[in-house]
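=== RUN LOG ===
request id: a7f3
mode: sequence -> structure
chains: 1
length: 601
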Amino acid sequence: MFMTRFFITSRALRDGVLRLSSKETNTSLIYFMLKTLYIKNYALIDELTIEFGSGLNIITGETGAGKSILIGALGVVLGDRSSAESVRKGSEKAVIEAIIEAVNNKRVEQLLKDHDFEVRGEMILRREISAKGQSRCFINDSPATLALLKEVGDLSIDLHGQHDHQSLLRVESHIRLLDEYGGLGGLVEEFQRQLESLKNTQKRLTELRQREKRMREQKELHAHQIREIDSIAPEENEEEDLQVERTILENSEKLYSATNRVHDILYSSDDSVHNRLVEVRNILQDLARIDKSFADSANDAYSAQALVDEITKFAQSYNSRIEFNPERLADVRERLMALQMLRKKYGGGGNHLSEVIRYRKTIAEEIMLVENFVEEITKWERQIKSQQEVLSEIAERLSAKRKDLAKRLSKAIPEELKKLGIANARFEVSIKHHPDTNGDILIDGTRYAATASGYDYVEFLITTNLGEDPKPLVKTASGGEVSRVMLALKTVLAKSDRLPILVFDEIDTGVSGKVAQAVGFSMKDLARYHQIIAITHLPQIAAMADVHFQVRKEISKERTMSVVAKLSHEEHQREVARLLSGAEVTDASLKSAQELIAAAR
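=== RESULT ===
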C-alpha cells in the first residue's frame, strides 16, 4: 500500500468519465473533473494530497477513520460553513484546495468573467480557515467572496449525503434539470434574450415617464427662465465686445488728448518728426548724387517719412471719431451687469455667455418635448405590447414542451428506482403558473410573471409508499432513500445534466445484497458520463471502483491523524474482501471479492 500520488493520463480520461460512444459524443463536450484535493491541518488530517481519477472513485475505511472528514473538507472548499474548531490542534490555520478541470462550461466561464477572474482550463478553489475562526477564499489564486466560491462550487460539484449541497433538493434547480433533460437550452436562451430586450424597453419607458413628470413639474420654471433670458437676449461674444467698448468710453478723454499729442509730435509742430525726416531725406539724396552708397539710406528715410505720415493719419482719424458719451457708457455698464447676472444664474459656473445660450436651447427643447410626450410614450407602449406577445408565444411553447418532458420523466424515474430497491415509487413533475396582473406574459387572457425560464414553476414530487400521493421531493426523500432517489434522477438525467462531479457520502445506507449491487452497477454506468466520488461500506459498491482509496488512522509523534492511500489492484481486492468478512480477510472472502470485482468489469 502506498500514499496516494498519481497522475491522470489521456487513456484514463478515455476510459473513465469521457468513456462515451460515438453517438454520445458531441463537438462541444462539457465536463468537470476534480483532479486534486489538498488538505492541511484540518481536523485529524495533518497534510495530504488526493489525486482523483476519472470514472468511479471509491473511498472506504473503518468507522471513525476520517472518511467524513474528507467530505467535510470538500464541502468547506465549496463554500460550506467553517469553524475554528476544524483547525488541527497546534496549527495557525487549515488550508483546503481543490483543482477542478472544467471544459466548455459556459455558465462557469461567464460567472468568472463577470467577476473579473481569469478563465482557464483548470479552476483552483482554495479556502483558508484561521484558528481564530476567520476565513479567506481564493479562486485561481485571486481573493474571492465566500458567496462567489459557493456559487462556483454549486456549478462544479454535486455533493450528496450529510451536507446540504444537493442540487436536486433545491426546488429552483428542477426547471433547469428538466430543460437540460429535454434539450431546451436554445429555446430558453431565446426567451431570455427576448425578456432582456423587453426589460430594456420597459426601462426606457419608465425613464421617459419619470422624465416627463419632472419636466411637467419644471415646465413653468423653465418658461420663466426663458422669458428672463429672452428679455435680455444675449448674443454670442457680446460680453467681450461690450467690455472692450466700455474700456474705450471710460478712457475717451485720454484717447483724445493722446492722439492730439501724437499728431502734434509727428506732424503739426515746427520741429515735428515729419519735417526733420524731410530735411534728412533731402540731405541724403544730395549725398547720393555724389556717392551712390547713400542711395539706400535715402530710400529708408523716404520710407520712414511715409510711415510717420500713416501713423499721423491714423491718429488724426481716430481722434476725429472719439465720442464723449456718458449716456452710452451708462448703457454699456448696465448691459454688462445684466449679462453677468444671466451668466451667474444660467451659465453653470462658466465664464461665457455661450453656456447661457446653450441652457436656453436645452430647456426650450424640453418644453417642446413635453408637448410631444404623449405620442412618444404611446410609441414605446406599442413596442412593449409587441415584445410581450413574442415573449408569451415562446413561454407557451416552452411550457408545452416541458409538460411532454414531465410525462417521460415521470415514467423513467420509477423504473430506475425499482432497480435500486424502491419498488413502489411514484414520481411526478409539477408544473404550475402564478397569475400576476402586472405580468409580462399573457396566456388565454391571463397575465403571468416572467421568470428567467418562462412562466413555469417546476417541482419534483415523489412517494415511495404504495397508496400515498407524491409530495415535494425536498420534504419526502430522507434516510436510506434520499441518495438512491438522487442516483436514479442522476442516472436518467446523466446525458443532459451538466454537473458531472458527483460526490456520494454513504449512498448505501439502508441497502444490502442485490439492491446494493444494483446501486453499484447504476453508479458504474453513471460514471461513464460523470466523475463520481463515493464513500461506501458495502463490498458490492466498492468492487465497482475504477480508483479505490482507503482512509485509515495512524499515530505519529503521539498524534492521531487520518491518512489516505490509493490502492493497487491487489490491495483493492483485499479491501473488498475486508468489507465482506470484517477485520480478518479469509481465502473465501478474498475469492468472493475477486468474483465481485470481475462481475463489475
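=== NOTES ===
The chain has 18 helices and 18 strands.
The longest helix spans residues 353-419.
=== END ===
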